[in-house]
Amino acid sequence: MNKKKFMGVGMVALGIAAFMVLVLPNYDRIKETRDTLATREGEVIQKEKFNEKMSQLKKQIEARQEDLVKVEDMLSSGKHTQDILVNLESISQEAGLALGNFKIGSAEDPSKNYQILQMEFGTDGQYATLLNLIKLLEKNLRIFDVQQISVAKKEAGEIGGAPLTMSLKVNTYYLK
């Protein structure tokens, strides 16, 4: 009977040893795999959120494509002086003025990604036409920055029906 007890105890001990040798390491690997799986699931969720944000940004870009075109028109790449002069001439004609005495220069700042085109021009006209010109410059798609306005009354001996002589200094900007 003692042999049967020893054999039973031995079988139980052998079962426990087999459990520790065969099952316990697998259990630890399963636990590690579950932890890794939870970590990966978190990463997948983060990547899905990132992809969702990216798709939203792409939709915003597509929706604002028209605005981007307007910005490109405001800050064209390159100087395009002749286009700017044509634009100014059409604005002045709409305001009822004839521009003259153009002087054009540029200010370069290597630290900025845009350049400044400085223009100075003169005209003769009424005060109301000058205000109209400034309003049209404000409303224009291209950025015109009026730096200085000089207005003087014409001398009595000067020829012409306009009582004022005006001079404007205007800056506009373009990308490098």
Overview of this protein structure:
By secondary structure, the protein is of the alpha+beta class. The chain has two domains: 1-63; 76-175, Ribosomal protein S6/Translation elongation factor EF1B (Alpha-Beta Plaits), CATH 3.30.70.60. The chain is built from four helices and four strands, in the order H-H-H-E-E-H-E-E. The protein has a four-stranded antiparallel β-sheet with strand order 1-2-4-3. Helix 3 (81-95) crosses helix 4 (127-139).
Walk me through the topology.
Blueprint: H1 2-63, H2 65-74, H3 81-95, E1 100-107, E2 114-125, H4 127-139, E3 144-153, E4 164-175
Antiparallel strand pairs: 1-2, 2-4, 3-4
Helix pairs in contact: 3-4
Side-by-side strand order of the widest sheet = 1-2-4-3
Low-confidence stretches: none
Label the overall shape: rod-shaped
- How many DSSP-defined strands? 4
Strand content: 15-25%
Mean pLDDT: 82
* CATH C-level class of the largest domain: Alpha Beta
Output the helix-strand order.
HHHEEHEE
Q: How many distinct helices?
A: 4
The main β sheet shows up as: 4 strands, antiparallel
Look up the CATH topology of the largest domain: Alpha-Beta Plaits
CATH superfamily of the largest domain: Ribosomal protein S6/Translation elongation factor EF1B
What's the CATH architecture of the largest domain? Answer: 2-Layer Sandwich
Please tell me the total number of domains. 2
Helical content class: 55-70%
How far the N terminus sits from the C terminus, by CA atoms, comes to 101 Å
Pairing-aware structural class of the strands and helices?
alpha+beta
What integer value in Å does the Rg equal? 40 Å
